[in-house]
């Protein structure tokens, strides 16, 4: 069997470091914020290439906290891609602002930046380009247009754009998830907000703790968005190995590209185009003819695969009142019908990759 993801393989070589981090928190007594959180925030900011990082409780909460810190609320519009995980649009909706759905580039699957600029209105307060599956959107046209850019970098730890900027450092603010399957993951939910803006970082720190400073004095409305100290400690142990994990994922992707060549030449399978920069392959996604039948065939052979994403955001029932519907974002809708994520994680062996590609070639008779 080939698992879709196996976190234990990446963690096994550093178990002693993880145990030491756990014991340090368990015996240290600082279980809320404390030295490990401050140290991780400093280390993560340095890695991303910004001055400030604020640890929060999840990737979804990183988006919500950033939007709240920016003052986004009722009457505002925020541009979001129609093809991504729910929390991008859901976080906008929770502030009282209106998510405005933008179609994707059919080649890269990233937000269609020219389309986003066309959809800008006087009410547009911000835009959230998602660095989908591990490669970055070119945010420069958005910055040049004067938009406030909130990077959704939940899937892009360590990815780099064409100008050498890491995800989370190119826009005004970056939002990360440390969910266990992410390139940098902990053993539960955690996230971070990154920025070069000291005032915005301070406001985000207020937001993550009920808007309180000093204790019991609440300047603004916030929430309980603190990162757990244990997660910060474990992430500190994992961070030195992040780039090696990215190298491992890129090696898997290169093998897929080579061994699926017959299917690519026949048009049975397509690969999303590579944007400028460094892809970290949080997910290795193909676009497959007869996707659902292929998924079933792989499953029968014990090969893990998954659909990212089965429905675009603009047709989700919870957004019905926004007046969106089928046909509004045709490229996103098409991607939902043929996109399939294959196993891609540190520790996946070359033999396992060949087992996956052999099964795909056999399915298409290639």
At the fold tier of CATH, the topology name of the largest domain is Aspartate Aminotransferase, domain 2
Total of helices? 14
Oligomer: single chain
Please indicate the count of domains.
2
CATH superfamily of the largest domain: Type I PLP-dependent aspartate aminotransferase-like (Major domain)
Characterize the largest beta sheet: strand count, sense, and whether it forms a barrel.
4 strands, mixed
Relevant terms:
single chain; 366 residues; alpha/beta; Aspartate Aminotransferase, domain 2; Aspartate Aminotransferase, domain 1; 4-stranded mixed sheet; 3-stranded parallel sheet; globular
Descriptive notes:
- The chain has 366 residues and is an alpha/beta fold.
- The longest helix is centred in the last third of the chain and has 18 residues, at 242-259.
- It has helices spanning 7-11, 15-28, 35-48, 59-70, 87-94, 113-118, 140-144, 198-207, 229-238, 242-259, 261-266, 291-300, 330-338, 350-364, and strands spanning 52-56, 77-81, 98-102, 124-127, 150-152, 173-177, 191-195, 269-270, 284-288, 339-342.
- The strands form three sheets. A four-stranded mixed sheet has the order 1-7-6-5, sandwiched between helices. It has a three-stranded parallel sheet with strand order 3-2-4, with helices on one face.
- 39% of the residues lie in helices and 12% in strands.
- α5 (87-94) links the parallel β2 (77-81) and β3.
- It has two domains: 7-241, Type I PLP-dependent aspartate aminotransferase-like (Major domain) (Aspartate Aminotransferase, domain 2), CATH 3.40.640; 242-364, Aspartate Aminotransferase, domain 1.
- α2 packs antiparallel against α9, α3 packs across α9 and α4 (59-70) packs across α8.
């Amino acid at each position: 069997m080939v698992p879709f993801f196996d976190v234990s393989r990446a963690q096994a070589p550093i178990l002693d470091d993880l145990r030491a981090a756990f014991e340090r928190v368990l015996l240290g007594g600082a279980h809320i914020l404390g030295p490990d959180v401050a140290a991780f925030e400093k280390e993560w900011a340095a890695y991303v290439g910004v001055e400030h990082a604020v640890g929060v409780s999840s990737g979804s909460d990183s988006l919500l906290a950033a939007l709240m810190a920016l003052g986004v609320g009722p009457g505002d519009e925020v541009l979001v891609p129609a093809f991504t995980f729910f929390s991008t649009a859901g976080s906008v909706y929770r502030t009282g602002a209106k998510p405005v759905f933008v179609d994707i580039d059919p080649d890269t699957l990233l937000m269609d930046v020219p389309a986003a600029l066309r959809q800008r209105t006087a009410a547009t307060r911000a835009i959230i380009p998602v660095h989908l599956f591990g490669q970055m959107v070119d945010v420069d046209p958005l910055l040049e247009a004067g938009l406030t850019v909130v990077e959704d970098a939940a899937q892009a730890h360590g990815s780099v754009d064409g100008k050498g900027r890491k995800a989370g450092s190119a826009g005004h603010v970056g939002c990360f998830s440390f969910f266990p399957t992410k390139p940098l993951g902990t053993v539960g939910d955690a996230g971070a907000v990154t920025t070069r803006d000291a005032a915005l970082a301070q406001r985000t720190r207020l937001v993550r703790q009920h808007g309180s400073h000093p204790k019991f004095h609440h300047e603004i409305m916030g929430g309980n968005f603190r990162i757990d100290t244990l997660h910060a400690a474990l992430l500190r142990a994992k961070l030195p190995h992040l780039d090696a994990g990215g190298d491992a994922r890129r090696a898997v992707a290169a093998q897929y590209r080579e061994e699926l060549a017959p299917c690519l030449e026949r048009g049975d399978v397509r690969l999303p185009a590579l944007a400028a920069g460094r892809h970290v392959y949080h997910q290795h996604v193909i676009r497959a003819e007869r996707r659902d039948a292929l998924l079933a065939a792989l499953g029968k052979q014990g090969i893990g695969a998954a659909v990212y994403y089965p429905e675009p955001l603009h047709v989700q029932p919870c957004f019905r009142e926004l007046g969106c519907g089928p046909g509004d974002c045709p490229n996103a809708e098409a991607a939902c019908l043929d996109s399939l994520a294959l196993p891609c994680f540190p520790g996946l062996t070359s033999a396992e990759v060949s087992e996956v590609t052999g099964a795909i070639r056999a399915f298409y008779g290639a």
